[in-house]
Write a structure and sequence with these properties.
By secondary structure, the chain is α/β, with parallel strands linked by helices. The chain has helices at about 20-35, 45-55, 85-95, 120-135, 150-155, 165-175, 175-200, 205-220, 280-300, 305-310; strands at about 40-45, 70-75, 80, 100-105, 140-145, 160-165, 225-235, 255-265, 265, 270-275. The longest helix is centred in the middle third of the chain and has 24 residues, at about 175-200.
Length: about 325
């Protein structure tokens, strides 16, 4: 097979996903791009970027808080600030971070911490002190996302804040062998969910029940986060509402799903389309035409091709 697939556990008798290599190669990649950029340091609040750089994770409840942050200075190792208990946990269980680089410190919890609490100033002071110590305080600082009070405080310290998100996007664009293996495993979990769903679908089943079934299968298989299951049926299919409802499936309905879930931080956006009970001649014709469009697009997929080129063969 072109892409290797593995069991779900670590074993001593077979080389599988190498997490040490995964952590090392991701950090090496962003370090190299940072070195080639105009930035003196990269400051990240996006939890996906924090995980890419530091290989730490505290649960998807923190995904929308913009509260943990990491600083990657030029020619140095990343420093992570986190909730106090999490920082202590990283010190005990994330030795790759090194000594004294997992520290307590949080931002503003998307406004839950009021301005009077001084969190924004505290974050800016922490960053400025680290940059000053390395002689980088006059160099541009790339930031991926930030709450506005934090951004303003960084600027008050005299820091030249520029866009760092594109650098992170470039780093994450090309996947390592271990990242590909994790994406493949995430897709296999969705394969299993679709099989269970296909067997369960019948008239009277509701869209929300399909969402519940898929979520259970994925969590049972080790998913860390079922981000969404778009379940769309019947006349709800066009235009796409991007949210499931409690609509019952009916005989002959078209129904399509998009399963978005995360395994070890590697996420799916995996669509499948079905009909309930039987397919009308119009549905069969539409399917054939869509399949032709997709096959033509797949034929164009090559390294270096843009999505615009691939989509050019669609109506």
């Amino acid at each position: 097979m072109a892409i290797k697939t593995y069991g779900t556990m670590a074993v001593d008798w077979e080389q599988r996903i190498d997490f040490d290599r995964l952590r090392r190669e991701r950090l090496d990649r962003i370090k190299k791009l940072l070195k080639e950029s105009e930035m003196g340091a990269l400051l990240c609040f996006d939890m996906n970027n924090v995980r890419y750089i530091t290989a730490t994770h505290i649960g998807t409840w923190a995904q929308d808080k913009a509260n943990r942050f990491t600083l990657l200075p030029q020619d140095d190792e990343p420093i992570l600030w986190d909730f106090g208990s999490a920082a202590k946990h990283h010190q005990l269980y994330a030795p790759w971070l090194g000594e004294k680089r997992s520290r307590p410190g949080i931002s503003m919890l998307r406004g839950a911490m009021s301005a009077e609490m001084g969190r924004a100033e505290d974050v800016a002071n922490k960053i400025w002190m680290e940059l000053k110590e390395r002689g980088l305080e006059r160099e541009p600082v790339g930031v991926d996302i930030a709450e506005l009070p934090v951004l303003f405080e960084l600027q008050k310290k005299g820091l030249n804040v520029i866009d760092g998100q594109q650098l992170m996007s470039e780093a994450r664009l090309i996947k390592t062998v271990d990242e590909i293996a994790l994406l493949t495993h995430a897709a296999a979990q969705v394969d299993a969910a679709y099989d269970e769903l296909y067997r369960a679908m019948k008239p009277g089943m509701r869209e929300n029940e399909a969402v519940g079934l898929v979520s259970k299968v994925l969590y049972d298989l080790g998913s860390e986060y079922v981000e969404a299951v778009n379940a769309i049926s019947g006349e709800r299919c066009n235009p796409h509402p991007h949210v499931f409802s409690d609509r019952m499936l009916r005989p002959g309905d078209p129904v399509y799903y998009d399963i978005l879930q995360s395994y070890m931080g590697y996420r799916t956006c995996y669509y499948r389309t079905f009909t309930i009970g039987y397919a009308s001649f119009a549905m069969v014709d539409a399917y054939k035409r869509c399949r032709d469009y997709l096959d033509a697009a797949i034929e164009l997929v090559r390294p270096g091709r843009t999505t615009a080129e691939i989509a050019s063969v669609w109506p």
